[in-house]
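Q: Structure tokens for this one, please.
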Amino acid sequence: MNGFCIYVENRIMKNTISVLALSTLFVVSACKKTENNSADTVKKDTVQNNTFSVDSVKVSDSVKLNDSLKIKYSSKMLVFPTIKDRSLLDSIYFGDKNIRDFSKKGLQAQLENNKNEYFSKIKKDSKDWISDLGFAQEWYSDMSMNLKSRTNDYIHIQYLWGSYEGGAHDNYGFSERVFDLKNNKKLELKDITSMPKAKIAAMLMKNINKINSGTTDSNGKVNNSEMLLVDVVPATDNFYFDEKNLYFHYSPYEIAAFAAGDITISVSWEELKGTINPEFKKRMGISY
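A: Here is the predicted structure, written as tokens:
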């Protein structure tokens, strides 16, 4: 199925990992199931003029395959009537080649196509075993785009997906993307800082212990790093920022078990001092 972000290009592994004492770890910004909220909370830039506008399209439907299996599908896309650059629009919609019409009507039609493809795929894949389901189940696929902030000609869009197709639990994940409306491109980490990713990774490993998760070691110190499934916390492309920090967002299973939820680790501009791109620093008004 071609979803609007192809399940954010990452259907996090479905293998169940047994974890002890993790249910309260990393209460940072967990989202066990994605929610399509019609009213996005957007931090707006008061300096910008009124040439930027945003709208949205949605689809929500369900189908009952038999007495044991019901399938629900919901999806929401943002619409940007004032953005005309096609390369930027391609990037916003993850380069989905099925999307050729970026108008509200065109994107609504794409959502309908995505929904129909999803239902058709589940029906086809389940025909050999659906009669063997031992109990009633409700599967779902939920995807959404949310405009989180707009400041200094940068827009931050959060892409969320959630799904359940059998197994011990549902799955969900995030993709954070920042777009530069001034230069019509997706912002890369190198556009913000020249610091090597290995050094940023070291900061992330240190800063994860600044998260107040309620987990401590034998000396009473926060030691979240011991609960990780990785030796190094990478400088992920899922980043965003505000006037104080650069934030890196990790979906379940990326660096910790599912029970840990999603994890957001911040790196302050002070920590990146001397490496911040001068143009970015000026546009954001960063002062240490």
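A few notes: Residues 1-41 have pLDDT under 50 and may be disordered. Residues 104-126 form the longest helix (23 residues).
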